[in-house]
Design a protein that fits this description.
The chain is mainly beta. It contains no helices and eleven strands. The strands form two sheets. Strands 2, 4, 5, 6, 9, 10 and 11 form a seven-stranded mixed β-sheet that branches. A four-stranded antiparallel β-sheet has the order 1-3-8-7, with no helix packed on it.
Length: about 120
Amino acid sequence: HVQLVESGGASVQAGESLRLSCVASGYTYARMCMGWFRQAPGKEREGVAVIDSDDGSTKYADSVKGRFTISKDNAKNTLYLQMNTLKPEDSATYYCTASFWSGCSLAAGYHKYWGQGTQVTVS
């Protein structure tokens, strides 16, 4: 099965920046939708950003638009989430996701494969 391994989570102060990384392995299909989701204690898991590896198109949650940037290095099979101007409400466990079917969406149900998560704390 596809394996996704996140890294880069840390505890930072408001206004600082972080870059999360996700290395994907174990897949056999070239095109895929990858994304980042997050879940804070007591809250539902929500979509943060997705990217279609075929054309590079992206979609962001309104709460992070203009502050976060999703990108992918296809040669390294690595997904990134650059997070700038972090706010306390960004604190959550961030999950890397992937799917090989059509429909690159912020809806969690579209994403078949999930990483274990990396913790981001903003104070």
